Amino acid sequence: MPINFYEKEKIFTLNTKSTTYAFGLFEDVFLVHIYWGKRINKFNSIKNILPYAERSFTTASYDLTGGVTNDTLPMEFPVYGNADLRGPAFHAEYADGSAITKLEYEGHKIYKGKKPLEGLPATYTESDDEVESIEIELKDKLTGMTVMLQYSVYNELDAITRSVRIINNGSQTIKLKKVMSANVDMQGCNYDMIHLWGAWGRERFEERRPLLHGIMEVDSKRGSSSHHHNPFVCFADKNTTENAGNAYGLSLVYSGNFVAGAEADSFDTTRAYIGINSFGFGWNLNPEQEFQSPEAVLVYSAKGIGEMSRIYHRLYRTRLCRGKWRDKERPVLVNNWEATYFDFNEEKILSIAERAKEIGIELFVLDDGWFGKRNNDNCSLGDWVVNYDKLPHGIDGLANSVNKIGLKFGLWFEPEMVSPDSDLYRSHPDWCIHVNGRDRSEGRHQYILDLTRQDVCNYIIESVNAILQSANIEYVKWDMNRNMAEIGSDLLQPEQQCEFTHRYILGLYSVLETITSKNPNILFESCSGGGGRFDPGMLYYMPQTWTSDDSDAIERLYIQHGTSIVYPLSCMGAHVSAVPNHQVGRTTPISTRGNVAMMGAFGYELDFTKLNDEDITVVKEQVTQYKEIGEVLHKGDFYRLKSPMEDKMAVWEVVSEDKQTVVVMFVNILGEANGPFVNIRLEGLEDGAVYKEEKTGEEYTGEFLQNMGIYRRRDGDFTSEYIIYKKVV
Ligand code: GLA
What we know:
By secondary structure, the chain is an alpha+beta fold.
């Protein structure tokens, strides 16, 4: 059984294939954290194993024996208002203005399978046998409030999910101010914190910083998960590397404001946490109502950061992403954004599509600029009506022509937005996020629609669906191009205004659920000025995300490297674009641009009619190669053999699910005069097996490739290579 309660020892253990997460009942009342790490099958009694001591100048709120102070107990779900003066996971205000909560254990329930989370994306199961769950009921006796801690254990996939449900059983409104999805009071504080930071055009750069005493956290206050930080954090031992050592990952299945971090206290314990950002957040929980937190996904790896990533990849690829396209090979696409920007007409689009067909491309995506009078980014968002000046035969006519050429047709939308210069805004100026009497700041000349309103959500659903039903559209790019400011809604009561950002995300999720389930055959890709909302919440609805607006192959090494810490290659939209690159002006060979983009959901973002014959030949080879190995890349095990952050080169390896094919992709950043050889040792192979390199026909054993490895030099700027090995014995 993955989940056990040992009555005598007062300990709960949650076991996956190779890990254990344990908590227990302290004095039969308080839920304390015991352990998270490598699998342990037997624990002694809680009394004998919990590391705590009497401490001077600390307070014990309750009648605990042995001089125990709450301030040093490792708590499973710490609350505000007692003598634990570290940061709490929960903070609420009650009708009398007090904010003291005392959570006592009431009972628990263990069951097979995993319940969906009301209104929120979450990991799921295909059969109840895959997962066991436990709900721990904690009660605040004075108010009658119940806090249900929910855990699910993916035994085979080696991951544990957590979330919290608050139930108001009392007769007065409870004001929730902070509800973390997960809190883990870990022993020791000698960790490094690894997180993914950035900005537009340089999202999810990996950063590793030593945890110091005090608080270190990353967050978003922007209304979306953001370009700036990702809802993920990892704590690793100092000596943890890609392929060895302890790594503890916390990832949040949520697309709005979040916080993730840790407090290293004065007794060298670490309180790690992840959840909705309490900045600007509040929730009025009326009697009989429930509040469900988003889901946190906890992954522990004893084999380094790489193994942690592979666990996230498997789980998110197979039990978070959904729908027809989850397991299917993605079509190779061409998107016209960088090829034409707003300056296109039907003739131009068809000329690119025709060339694309000759090359072997499978899907044409028409990006921004097809609706209203949108010839620049000043206008028309919200007016989802085709621009017949540009497209005289409408979207339907264009889709038919593209289909006749032999390609699928896809379309760009930015449904959450409204331009001040739009018919929608002129008729509904109150539909955007705003506070009467205050400024309405514009971002990219646009406002955000108020998705806390049902009428606005209905408008989005109806207008997007009308277009989707009017033509043979087989792919949608769902964009979102600004942050929130001056937040407020006309329809929310004054005391509910603090609920806005979370309600917006719930509104968004309900819109996405409706549109994606009504259109099960469409491949959806999410986007937010590139990767401004690349998070597990969006992946539940849309199995891929446009990784970044920066399409330069070298910058993409850093971006895709960081993104791969949590997210699988199948989720990362990656395209070959023109040179000099439009974002950084760099010229890289077409081969390198292709090789880097193939390590994602592959496509092109350039005007094929402008490529010379030599490049066209290379592109044709790339498309053929991707069709052969795309499935291996998307479903295989991914290894970061060299990091562009440290090694001045990126070497990525994928081993297919059936272990028959191994792909190694090597990019050198800058050439070096008379440089040393760089040793690249492969991973994930079978020692005794023999692998044949496709290009040379040379055969090597697995143990050779993993221990002796191969050698390359840093020759030339931006050079790259794809090496494919097939297992022969
Ligand atoms: C965003 C996207 C781009 C493109 C433009 C269109 O920036 O990230 O890929 O779709 O919008 O306006």
